[in-house]
Amino acid sequence: MKKSLVTLKVNGKLYKAYTNAKGKAIFKITNLNKVGRFNALVKFAGNKNFRLLGKFVRINVVR
Predict the structure, then answer these.
(1) What's this model's pTM, rounded to 2 decimal places?
(2) 12 Cβ contact list (under 8 Å, min separation 6)
(3) Cβ distance 45 to 36 under 8 Å?
(4) CA gap 26, 11 in Å, rounded
(5) pLDDT digit string (tens) for 14-48?
(6) Enclosing domain of residue 12
(7) How far apart are CA 21 and CA 58, in angstroms?
(8) Which of 9, 16, 17, 47 could form an SS bridge with 25, CB 3.0 to 4.6 Å?
């Protein structure tokens, strides 16, 4: 699905990205300066073909 809005919430901050022609979204996360693991929630609001989808993921920040 191209040009679909996907959101990512990590540490209380919400990031938005749109999917490309291959259905992948790339987020620019700017406030994770510490090394460690962070829990995040990725959401797709749905459209006429797909329903609301949310999934918890882990983000690893390494130096």
Answers:
(1) 0.75
(2) none
(3) no
(4) 18
(5) 999 999 999 899 888 877 888 899 999 999 877 77
(6) 5-61
(7) 25
(8) 17
- Looking from the CA of 12 toward its CB, the CA atoms found within 13 Å total 0
Quote the pLDDT of residue 31.
78
Count how many domains the chain has. 1
H runs (alpha helix) in 1-63 = none
Question: By CB neighbour count within 10 A (0-12 exposed, 13-18 middle, 19+ buried), where does 50 fall?
Answer: exposed
Is residue 6 classed exposed, middle or buried when 0-12, 13-18 and 19+ CB atoms within 10 A define those classes?
buried
Q: How many CB atoms lie within 10 A of CB 41?
A: 13
